[in-house]
Amino acid sequence: MKKKLIISSLILLVCCLQASEVKGQKKDILNNVDTLFKSILESYKKEPIFIHKQFDMTDEEAIDIIDKMPSFGIFEDSYFVTGISTNHTPTRESSDAKFQLSVRQRLSKSTLPFNTFAYFTYTQKSFWGIYAESSPFRDTNYNPGLGLGRYIIHNKKLIGSAFIQLEHESNGKDGDDSRSWNYLSVSGKYFFNPYLSFNLELWLPYVDGGENKDLLKYRGLGKFCINGVRSNSSFWYSGEINPRMGIGNTNINLSFGYRVSSRSNQYLYAQFYNGYGEGLLDYKQHHSFLRLGFCIKPSFDTIF
């Protein structure tokens, strides 16, 4: 019954997305996409969260369905948070606001070699001394990227996705405050079940910034992330571990979200960061921050 429900839901999605060409129906189509994945999660509702159970889907179904989904969307979490330092006495100078905007645009359908598709991403992260005098922006990091992605189907199950991407990150400053690097990122996402997924990303870097030659000592060469969501999508959590150079040295980023409304993807958001390299300008300084705010998060089912 579950398999039939999933197949029926996927067929419904195709029909709904084909209707997206009708003028004025785009909003309804996006709501139907969200409804589809809710129905899929509902079919797994009684399954324990740690049971290994993946989406039933063939290569043809995955390509046909995903290629009809909107090409533009959220890439990483987009959020606005504010909070205090937990390793210094909270003051107007040590407290701040942090916000991130992150989008992605598919540049092709899955018709490239090996059923891959091309895409572009752009992420911008800013640190704002909102409580200090004149409220200066301490640092802003710009991160564009261009890559290839692919859905991974094994034994007629959607088990995850794989990506390879050329990326650049800099803070747009010159002189002594200039920070930049280029890297090839290789990453993958694995769906353990509809409620739990894992991400692994590795970096092959070329550090060209004259003022940050030792950046990798603080940023490391990759990260590992665990993502979880409740069956009704009302609460999600994410834990990111970024190993640095040296045994036992890690940067940790924990985040939690509570969905404000079942009809939106807006969440009350809490974020805790502990480590180095949160921003490029002060990458050599240790930071520990607890921040609260709101977040617009991509759907848990997104392959990115």
Short recap of the structure:
The protein is an alpha+beta fold and 304 residues long.
Tally the beta strands.
Answer: 14
Radius of gyration: 20 Å
Taking the sheet with the most strands, its summary is: 12 strands, antiparallel, barrel
Oligomer: single chain
Unreliable stretches (pLDDT < 50, length at least 5) are 1-34
Kindly report how far apart the N and C termini lie.
Answer: 29 Å
N-to-C SSE series?
HHEHEEEEEEEEHEEEEE
Characterize the overall form: globular
Strand order of the largest sheet: 3-4-5-6-7-8-9-10-11-12-13-14
The share of residues in extended strands comes to over 45%
Category from helices, strands and their pairing: alpha+beta
The average pLDDT is: 84
Structure commentary:
The chain has 304 residues and is of the alpha+beta class. The chain is 16% helix and 46% strand. It is built from 4 helices and 14 strands. Strands 3-4-5-6-7-8-9-10-11-12-13-14 form a 12-stranded antiparallel beta barrel. A hairpin with a 5-residue loop joins strand 10 (222-229) and strand 11. Helix 1 (2-18) runs antiparallel to helix 2. The chain is globular and about 55 Å long. The protein starts with a helix and ends in an 8-residue tail after the last strand. The relative contact order is 0.14.
